[in-house]
Automatic annotation (TrEMBL):
Source organism of the structure: Tardiphaga alba
Domain HTH cro/C1-type: 46-81
Tagged with keyword Transport: no
PROSITE patterns, per the entry: HTH_CROC1
Protein name listed in UniProt: Helix-turn-helix domain-containing protein
Taxonomic lineage from the root: Bacteria, Pseudomonadati, Pseudomonadota, Alphaproteobacteria, Hyphomicrobiales
Length: 108
């Protein structure tokens, strides 16, 4: 992957690269987003997703750019991911390395 890629996460969970004003998919066409962040059982599914990535709550929160309390609330079922967070988690379920690379600081 080029280090100067400009990526965009679409609301439907697709990741696209911005090239000369056009959006070019970088992940092959995917089936509908998995139930990783469905309303029922999202606490255990977010925890499972984080564990599959082999990250602590603190590391996962830092990678997503959210407070660690948000991750804890999701995993304990106190809150459910919504909107962009829900889409991001669905994409992480399909292509975690791609998402984490895209979210990494430019100097890392």
């Amino acid at each position: 992957m080029r280090s100067n890629m400009r990526l965009r996460l679409k609301a439907d969970g697709r990741i696209v690269e911005l090239r000369d004003g056009d959006e070019v998919p970088i992940v092959p066409e995917m089936p509908a987003a998995p139930a990783v962040v469905a309303d029922r059982g999202s606490d255990t599914e977010v925890r499972s997703l984080r564990r599959r990535a082999q990250l602590t709550q603190t590391e996962f929160a830092a990678r997503l750019g959210v407070p660690v309390e948000t991750i804890r609330n999701w995993e304990q079922g106190k809150r459910s991911p919504r909107g962009p967070a829900r889409a991001l988690l669905a994409v992480i379920a399909h292509a975690p390395d791609t998402v984490f690379a895209a979210l990494a600081p430019a100097d890392a």
